[in-house]
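hey so i finally got around to running the thing on that chain from the lab meeting. sorry it took forever, my laptop kept dying and i had to restart like 3 times. anyway pasting the input first so we r on the same page abt which one it is
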Amino acid sequence: MDILSTWAKEAVDNRQFLDILYKHMDRLFYLELARRSMNGEQLDNAACAGILSDTSLEILTLLDAAYQVRKHYFGKEVRVHILNNAQNGHCREDCHYCAQASSSAAQIEEYGIKPDEEILQEARQAYAKGAACYCMVFAGRGASQSRIEHLKRLLAGIKSEFPDKEICVSTGFVSDEGAVELKKAGLDRLNHNLNTSEAHYPNICTTHTFTDRLNTLLAAKAAGLKVCSGMIVGMGENNADIIEVALRLRALKAESIPVNLLVPIEGNVLGAPGSALTPDFILRVLCLFRFLNPASEIRVAAGREIHLRSMEVMALYPANSLFLQGYLNAKGASNARTLQMIKDAGFSIKSEVDLDELLERMPQQDGITDSPKVLLKTLKELRPAI
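ok and heres what got predicted. didnt touch it at all, straight out
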């Protein structure tokens, strides 16, 4: 006897039978999303739009479908990244979301490029705290040849101590030749976020174009570097813009995709999200990026604490990566709280250091706030190695 015959026999009447059948068909829809994603099939625009806006799609079931994809490629492991804001401020670009931009009046702690030994010491600290990837971020429009030479020296120093650890660099635009030199010097990943769609880009920056950013990613791919690129949600974009970015990154085969949520820093041109970012919507965005980029590292990045609030841990079901120790200029949750959240949800971290060991030696109050409000980092938090 097949399953439909069994249900029909057990049903009190035809209406009960149809209810059971529809529930089964509904479940099949979510399973089909996961199956198509893991088979490498691209979802059509209607399905993508439905994931973001169709309220009949229940968020828990959608998260479970995304988790099946995440688990297939990454198991229950979380990759921790730690940022080093290696040069703060002094940027002539006018990116409306950035506290370092020439257009921002945010009261940040500005400083020039940190000394090499300080940057190396922060690498040691990052890996000791469980980071799978150490991310150095340099302000400015792009990497001059002198910047490339400096980065090559830094990479050599870090790789000499940590040959098997991953390094990511964000340094604005990089030429084809520069990307090749960084690859030869040992760089693993180049970060350059698309941030939003091509159509929406003029609304968030006027000093460079979407194509400028895309060309840097193409240079990185051509040089054999892994690409780290994502977006910022909450800058007045519409759902079609979000879908376009997710599809662009799929076409680029981006290995790492940070999904940032606009951090409303006082003094920035974009001081508050262009639309209300609800936990439900953010989780749908993460599910969309997982379905469209099944084998990519999806990172729930800046703003997760203030926008996801009590639902923050649910982001780990579609996403398999996050930042520890806050962001470029904004504080984040305490390291201890973040690691405890990972453990409590039954996940592990990709690190040679055991998660329990990290928690035992982690200060419960490590200088990063658990406040729901946006607070800027102090100089000590920006430069922990001095």
